[in-house]
Amino acid sequence: MATFIIRRLLWLVVVLFAISILVFLIFFATPGVDPARQMAGRNPTAATIKNIKHEFGLDRPLPVRYGLMMKHIFISRDLISYGSHTKVIPEILAAAPVTFSLILGAAVIWIVFSILIGVAATVFRGTFIDPLLMILALIGISLPVFWLGEMVNLVTQSRAHGFFLFSWVPPLGYTPLTQDPVKWFEGLIFPWLTLSVLYIGFYARVLRANLIETESEDYVRTARAKGLSERRVLMRHTLRTSLITFVSLFGLDFGVLVGGGALLVEVVFGLPGIGYLTYNALTSLDLPIIMTTVIYGAFFITLASAMVDLVYAWLDPRVRTA
Amino acid sequence: MAEPLLEVRDLKVSFRTEDGIVRAVDGISFTVNEGEVLGIVGESGSGKSVTVMSVMRLITDPNVMYQGEILYKGRNLMGLSKDAMREVRGEEIAMIFQDPMTSLNPVYTVGWQIEEQLNEHNSLKKGQAHRRAIELLGQVGIPKPEQRIDDYPHQFSGGMRQRVMIALALSCNPDLLIADEPTTALDVTIQAQILELIKDLKRDFGSAVVLITHDLGVVADIADRIIVMYAGRIVEEGDKDQIFYDPQHPYTWGLLGSIARLDRPRPRRLTAIAGQPPSMINRPAGCSFRPRCPQAFDRCKVEDPLLTDKVGSGHLDACHLAVEDKHARRDATIHPELAESA
Question: Is there a contact between A293 and A174 (Cβ–Cβ < 8 Å)?
Answer without folding.
Answer: no
